[in-house]
Amino acid sequence: MDEKNNVHELKVLERDSRSNNLVPFRQEFRVHGFDIYYDDLDPNELTLMFVNHQRTGSGISIFTHRLGTTYIQHVDTVKSPLLPSPNDVVATSRRTFYATNDMRHASGVMRRIEILFGMPWGHIVYYGPGGVFSKARTGISYPNGIARSADGELIYAVASSEPSISAFKADEDGVLSLVSKKEFRGFVPDNVSVDDVSGSLLVAGFLNTFEMFRYNREVLRGTDARPAGSVRRLSLSSDGRTGFVEESVLSHDGTLLPSTTMAVIQRRNGIKRMLLGSVMADHIAICN
Ligand SMILES: *[C@@H]1O[C@H](CO)[C@@H](O)[C@H](O)[C@H]1NC(C)=O
């Protein structure tokens, strides 16, 4: 990517079928997890996939972006009954993806029961090349962040209520089978990112879940809750079979960035740093 040409804001556009002009995207755009994909065919054309919580039902909205332009262009928004409560998405090609569905119920009392009792009712859905949704993996307790290894061989998914992270391999139909799994103690993982250079994973999450629930409940009205967080680095042996090695990279009391849900490694001009983000915050934190 061109480092000099920093784009600060991207317009969200779609092609009007009648006039053939690019116009502002007319659908609702309420974003949750997203992913960016590119391949060797044309590395200057990025595909962006967003979990889009439209009030008429959640879907995955797919856009393209040409480097150097100032907009993303809508390609398709796909929905399915197999996508009841999408949380995060990972693209596996320009038109295929996996998405986590954290719960079976999108709202109401059953959703509260699912949260409270950590029911293993979440699943990972696959959207394949034929434009068809299928269940790739079921019986997961609150599947949350999802990511893909740099070589595309492994899919990593967090189960927040278990709490654990698993590495999966896909068969030709997109069905995921377990390769390796790491359970956490005293740590509720939220999101995962892959450091493409080292191959290791960064998992961000919480050390105190009750404080996290209180924060999420109260944050819009103002809260003194400060959910303590942690970032764990996991390294997987090359064949994945001997499991993950876990290290703690950072622990914080929540004042740095309340409700830190993600950590990613940024490498740029020889400088390596860690960026922390939160679904609830309007800023990020940078750690040298
Ligand atoms: C989770 O982290 C990935 C980076 O690996 C990011 O693309 C995605 O948007 C994040 N999801 C959420 C819900 O924050």
From TrEMBL:
Glycans are attached at residue 191. It comes from the Eukaryota. The active site is at residue 32. Its cofactor is Ca(2+). GO terms for molecular function: arylesterase activity; metal ion binding. Glycosylated. Binds 2 calcium ions per subunit. Keywords: Calcium, Disulfide bond, Glycoprotein, Hydrolase, Metal-binding. This is Uncharacterized protein. It comes from Coemansia interrupta.
